[in-house]
Amino acid sequence: MTTRDTVSATSFLGGTDYESGKQRSMWVAAFTALVVWMAMLLMLYLVAGSRKRQPATSMARPVEGRPLTEVTTVDTYEKASPWGDKFRRAVRAARLTFLMVFSTTVITALGFGPTGGTVAILWVAFAIGALWSLAELFTDSHWMRLVMSLMLFPLVIITWALAFRSRID
Question: Which CA distances in Å does 161 have to 85, 91, 98, 166?
Fold first, then answer.
């Protein structure tokens, strides 16, 4: 059994007692999460348009406290793009996924090093995060966010814990 050196730059390159292909796979997951986040951000900039709202129409409606025969003209405001809010939520989910995958990759490289299990868990977490980003485009449900969080967060916590399994004595 070899003794582990202190943390060094070789940990990031797979130069310790673990296979470098696993470390590379984790960095590919982090890079892919970054690309997904940036793609969602570019799509947001493409579809969101201006953030200020312009009056769409003026319409007459009854005003509370006044007789029903009396109406007041009010301006209604319309959002610039209905997809803007959807992509903002998707960008937020993609950013969270990137931060989780990136931090897990770094902490694993600095800790025990990747194993087949930690790499698999990381890719499953990435897949759940990517699915979450896509789901935000089609639904605005706090229950969906809760379920995705309950699936993603434990995987990240487990991987963080496994990063220091040999350091806990």
Answer: 35, 27, 19, 10
**Are the CB atoms for 105 and 122 separated by under 8 Å?**
yes
d(CA 8, CA 79): 51
Any idea how long the chain is? 169
The C-alpha angle 24, 27, 29, rounded to 5 degrees, equals 115
Q: Is 13 helix (H, G, I), strand (E, B) or coil?
A: coil
Handedness of CA 137, 140, 144, 149 (dihedral sign): positive
pLDDT greater at residue 124 or residue 81: 124
Least Cα distance to 73 among 63, 59, 62 occurs for 59
3-class DSSP assignment, residue 5: coil
Question: Torsions phi, psi of 63, nearest 5?
Answer: -105, 135
Which residue matches tokens 């590919």?
28
Is 129 exposed, middle or buried (CB count within 10 Å of its CB: 0-12, 13-18, 19+)? buried
Query: Taking 70 as the threshold, does the pLDDT of residue 54 lie above it?
Result: no
Q: Which amino acid is at 113?
A: G
Do the Cβ atoms of 137 and 90 come closer than 8 Å? yes
